[in-house]
Amino acid sequence: MFPYALIDLHCDTLTALTAEDYSLLATLRDPAQRREAAAALTSRAHGVDTLDLPGRHFSLSAVPKEVRWCQCCAIFIPDELKGEEAAAYYDLHRRNFQRQMDALSTQVLPCRSAEDVEEAWSQGRTAAILTVENGSVLAGRLDRVEVLARDGVRMMTLTWNGENEIGSGNATDHGLSPFGREVVPELERQGVIADVSHLNDRGLDDFLSVARKPFAASHSNARSVCGHRRNLTDEQIREMVGRGCLIGLNYAQDFLRAGGRPATLDDLYRHVERFLELGAERCLALGSDADGTDVPPGLDSPGRFAGLYQYFLDRGLPPAVVDGILWKNSLDFFRKQCI
Questions:
Q1: Virtual torsion, Cα 56, 61, 64, 65, nearest 10 deg
Q2: Which tens digit of pLDDT belongs to each residue from 245-294?
């Protein structure tokens, strides 16, 4: 058995677009043009093993051989795509994910459950879990939750930064829509974990009023440490602890520290300390946001992600707490939530 494992709840490596790509989509007002541009961007990635490109924050070939690794791979849906455009964009990338799972099968195994993850590890392969970032993928249709579940999607963020049929991210203060209040119990029924990262405060309050099962914030930090609105308040963290939820530490520069100075591992540790002070020892995990944001130099590759194990030990955290953060809390959560 390898000495330790690592589970990362969120990366954008599968569908990572450039800033120029996002800007292009934002300027296109005609739906037909947006569809054409999105298809062109997607086709550029097809045939390219985006999960194994050198120089990315995450790359399968760069995973340290001694580490059992599980990577949640998000299909990110840009806010500019709505309705059937968003659904079609998702489907193109879903097929590309499966193509890569087949093409890279000696390195990676697609997983739908905690047992699948452990099977991948026993074979010396990386476990890959498919997720979706942005509930616009549903195109306003409740029956599409079942489609995602059948496709193997095991977690979905309700929003990105803007507004969709479910609710709104941190770009506005709108809460959940009536449709969004229907989506939450359907996600729970279908075994797709609801992810509240990016949801604004009002939306999270609405979500808490209808959620009955534990949920995740796959890539969010502590707002009392860094005041960005994407981070969780102490009250929200306490609520998630009380409900047995899962919170993934985000490596994004802007969510680690304010003030312009480049973030360091010590800034990440300040968030860890605050989460632990709030009782999140069994809820805290990793959610790198790899290939979707600017990260500090010390957190820009799989080898450096894995280096957090020794770093946390050196900072004085007990081995059991470090194991929890790096992998055990996530695996236990997956097992309890039947994914």
A1: 170
A2: 999 999 999 999 998 789 999 999 999 999 999 999 999 999 999 999 99
Collapsing DSSP states into helix, strand and coil, what is residue 3? coil
- Rounded Cα gap, residues 284 and 34, in angstroms: 38
Distance (Å, whole) CA 34 – CA 15: 17
The owner of tokens 């300390």 is: 273
Q: Is the distance from CB of 326 to CB of 67 less than 8 angstroms?
A: no
CA distance linking residue 293 with residue 295, whole number of Å: 6
End-to-end, the C-alpha distance of the chain in Å comes to 23
Q: What residues contact residue 87 under an 8 Å CB cut-off, 6+ apart?
A: 137, 138, 139, 144
Query: Which of these, 28, 48, 27, 26, lies nearest to 36 by C-alpha position?
Result: 28
Quote the CA–CA distance of 177 and 183 in Å, as a whole number. Answer: 10
What is the number of other CB atoms lying within 10 angstroms of the CB of residue 49? 16
- Measured from the Cβ of residue 144, the count of other Cβ atoms closer than 10 Å reads 17
Task: Give the gyration radius of the chain's Cα atoms.
Answer: 18
- Look up the pTM and report it: 0.93
pLDDT, residue 42, reads 58
Whole-angstrom Cα distance, residue 171 to residue 283? 27
pLDDT digits (tens, 9 = 90+) for 110-123: 999 999 999 999 99
Whose tokens are 């659904």? That residue is 87
Look up residue 279 and give its amino acid: G
Cβ neighbours of 133 (radius 10 Å): 27
Beta bridge partners of residue 73, listed in sequence order: 11, 130
Q: Measuring CA to CA, how many Å separate 196 from each of 36, 135, 274, 331? A: 30, 11, 19, 19
Asked whether 286 and 322 are in contact (CB, 8 A), the reply is no
Task: Give the 3-state secondary structure of residue 124.
Answer: coil
